[in-house]
Amino acid sequence: MSFETNHTSRRDFLKISGKTSALLAIGFSLPIAGKAEEIKKLDTSALSMGLELNPYILISDEGKITLFNARPDMGQGTYQSLPLLLAEELEVTLDQVEIRNTDGQGKYGSQLSGGSSSIRTRWMPMRKAGAAVKEMLIKAAAKKWNVSEAECYAEKAKVFHKPSGKSYTYGELVEEASKLEVPKDPKIKDPKDFKLLGKSVPRPEIPSKVNGTAVFGIDSNVPGMLFVSIERSPTILGKVISFDGSEALRIKGVKHVIKTERKMPHRAVEAVAVVADTYWAALKGRRALKIKWDAEGSDKISTDKYFENLRELAKTEGFEYKDDKAGDFAKAFGESAKKVEAQYETPFLAHAPLEPENATVWVQGDKVEIWAPIQGPDGLIPQVAGYLNIKPENVKINVPFMGGAFGRKAYNDYVMEACHVSKQIKAPVKVIWTREDDMTQGPFRPGMLNAFQGAFDAKGALTAYNHKIVGGSIQHQVFGNPLKNVPDDWAGEGSGLGDSPYEIPNRRQSFHLAETDIPIVWWRSVYASTNAFGHESFIDELAHSAGMDPLAFRLNLLADSPRFSRVLQKLAQKSDYHQKLPENKAIGIAIARSFATIAAHAVTVSKQGDGVKIEKVVSVIDCGMTVNPDNIKAQTEGNIVMGITAAIKNGITIKEGKTEQTNFHEYNVLRMTEIPAIEIYVVDNMEAPGGVGEPGLPPIAPALCNAIFNLTGKRIRTLPFDIDKIV
Amino acid sequence: MAKYSLSINGKKFSIEAEPDTPLLWVIRDYVGLKGTKFGCGMALCGACTVHLDGEPIRSCSTPVSTLKAANRITTIEGISANTDHAIQKAWIEAQVPQCGYCQSGQIMSAVALLKSNPNPNDEDIDAAMSGNICRCGTYPRIRKAIHRAADLIKESGNTTGK
Questions:
Q1: Which intervals hold domain Aldehyde oxidase/xanthine dehydrogenase a/b hammerhead (chain A) (predicted)?
Q2: Across the interface, do A634 and B42 touch by the CB < 8 Å criterion?
Q3: Residue A271's closest CA among A152, A377, A424, A130?
Q4: Cross-chain residue pair A278–B130, CB shorter than 8 Å
């Protein structure tokens, strides 16, 4: 699964590159007489058809090189990693270039940071784009020197003539190069010749993130802008019956009190906005509002009732994922000698990125300009255009850094809201959500129930496995996909046959749709986080039921999956899995493939009073060829911390239509005092690159709970749990 | 509205604001220094940490009216002129930030820690840093970078960290 639809396979790429030879629109912004027409030609005619690879590289005649990053950076590192793909083939280093984020225009292709897709889908296209420009620059130099191209090479933004030692900077070659035909199939490097990829190159934006100069969405500043705080329905369903803004308007600095709305994909929620010349005045004005809400229907909405419904749905057959290799679960289960069953529940969660949702928007007639932390500028353009009923080309988007996102900022309600307010008051506005808004309003990771059945034959072989995925469907709610008589094709991530290679001859997997009014959305690793908790806990339960060591049990089922086996074996070695631990310590493991990457964790826990302490996490991640190994480690560290938080800290609960957690005192996250020792090992191989931003998360909760079982004999089947009270 | 005279990063600012306005918004929207961040508004996350006379405080919960002209306020922009405070050097070396949003606050807490305790052990770091949330989970690197910064300060012999 993926909400990323731009899976660029090799075949796709050849098609694209053929169509869009002009990616080199090295065209640049050359203010040279006589060039304008040619540049125009490159920029429009050749590039206007279909999905384009295009001006990711700009070179000015003065030698200024600009590389474009087409995936907004929320901390996952695309601000470096995508330009690095270009730089490797272009033979430049990042300190020689300026990096700019793309603005959502169609010519840059899909720009959604999501589904851990950036490197997976851009690995070849970006490298080819860099290689094509390099070839043209070399050709241009050879022409100017009147020598053979074979005698020339590129290095550090210059082309050299080997025999004479002469050189040209890229800037000196750009005019000549722009007259050349773009190579259709440029030669890319053999990975053994990589100078940048696969090395831990320091990220270029880090200095700006330690001195306060990095610009996040919330730092946007438009002259004359007003600040906005919005009171939205405190219950999930709610309409404004009436409101009185007179007291709010008496607060110094408050300019307007207006009715507005929060437009979510599946419905709009009514709200009242306070607009002021400072954010503090807007907040105070909001507190002074008197609003009468009609909350009809909200009293029936609660997470308790939602989970009761899931438990009922788990008794049904659901809709089965079709798979020719799945065998016959019902028959094998019926004929089995020993049956094991278990159900696992995972809570609703808020993303709680440390930068709350915010958007600065200026609607001017039929045009709008947006400055906001967003994961997908290309998807935002048609949404905003449709919402404001203006032309897509009149939507201008500026993409700053995001202060965390985790999926939340690929849901654009907060941008639309700012559009609604700016349009009404005809001024630029900055809407900032409070932490309470962020936590109580959702959308949330959907609460899920995963139900399993497993069975052994008389010889003790695991012959049957059933997995029911029960819960809300994100695509059903967000995209209105009706899902009539079919399973949700995203919901198997991390545990379906494609992701879990355990050889079990008879398998069944089904999806059981729970309709809900609670707003839901993708949350870091989406369904993989909830599936893997059930799947890898249950595999562990089966191992214990078979009287086998959980590692050996898994390896037995992975005889034909050497890549998985190697990850587990490396994990066993690095975690010293087979060592004898003292009575008060135990180790547990879990492995999951998600977003085309395999990640495995070994967690060591110790007894601590009535609870346990997480002593250490050792991880092995196999994401194929790497861009920046140190960043892969960083992302995996982050996934471990976020995954432990999701396992042992508060979930989101809703009662009578109201979210019960409002800020970090009620929705705790892991802090410095609670961090175990973490060791990450990145597998070095030549497999195609997989995702990095999410795959480290799914296996951490089951590895932790498997360790706790090994230590205490207590099997944890519901998250979150209180780690200080296990026994 | 009332007038306030503030000293921020060694410069004097004259501000006209409501007395209950949190220092955070004064720094960000009146003075225009955007490195200090809003995270929770309740002194729970530490993203807004600045120094008041060298001590870390949560600017989101500090009304401007409680400050005096003689108070020295330091923000992330004021800890070094060239991003070369030992803490910043160590942060870059360890590639600490992911999204980076909480890091101004983390760094302000860490600078204060090293000033009062040039050789902190892990427990000291826990105590000084547990008020700062990092949702990206950079804690292991923060810990490592604080130890490294302590070493850098020792090596340089300059206890100000600069």
A1: 211-297
A2: no
A3: A424
A4: no
Put simply, whether B65 touches A (Cβ < 8 Å) is no
Q: Is the pLDDT of residue B120 over 50?
A: yes
Helices (H) and strands (E) in chain A, counts: 19, 26
Confidence check: pLDDT of A343 > 90: yes
With CB atoms and an 8 Å threshold, state whether A404 touches B143.
Answer: no
Instruction: Classify strands A395-398 and B49-52 as parallel, antiparallel or unpaired.
Output: unpaired
Amino acid (one-letter) located at A553: F
Which has the minimum average pLDDT: A104-113, A234-243, A701-710, B133-142? Answer: A104-113
- Cross-chain residue pair B37–A354, CB shorter than 8 Å: yes
Task: Please tell me the CATH code under which domain A303-348+445-712 is placed.
Answer: 3.30.365.10
Mutate to test the interface with B, among A73, A208, A209, A680 (most CBs of B within 10 A): A209
Q: Is residue B90 within 8 angstroms of chain A, CB to CB? A: no
Domain boundaries, chain A: 10-210, 220-296+357-432, 303-348+445-712
Nearest Cα residue in chain B from A665: B44
The interface predicted TM-score of the complex, written ipTM, equals 0.98
Please, what is the average pLDDT of chain A?
Answer: 92
Query: How far away is chain B from the Cα of A207, in angstroms, using its nearest Cα?
Result: 6
pLDDT band at A63 (very low <50, low <70, confident <90, very high): confident
Assigned CATH topology for domain A220-296+357-432:
Aldehyde Oxidoreductase; domain 4 (3.30.365)
Chain B residues touching A638 at Cβ < 8 A: 98, 136-138
| B59 inside 8 A of chain A by CB | no
The pLDDT of residue A107: 84
Tell me if domain A220-296+357-432 and domain A303-348+445-712 are identical in fold: yes
Question: A497, exposed or middle or buried, with CB in 10 Å at 0-12, 13-18, 19+?
Answer: middle
- For domain A10-210, give the fold: Aldehyde Oxidoreductase; domain 4 (3.30.365)
Residue A393: how many CA atoms within 13 Å on its side-chain side? 1
> Of B79 and A14, which is predicted with more confidence?
B79
Of the candidates A185, A199, A181, A220, the residue with the CA atom closest to the CA atom of residue A42: A181
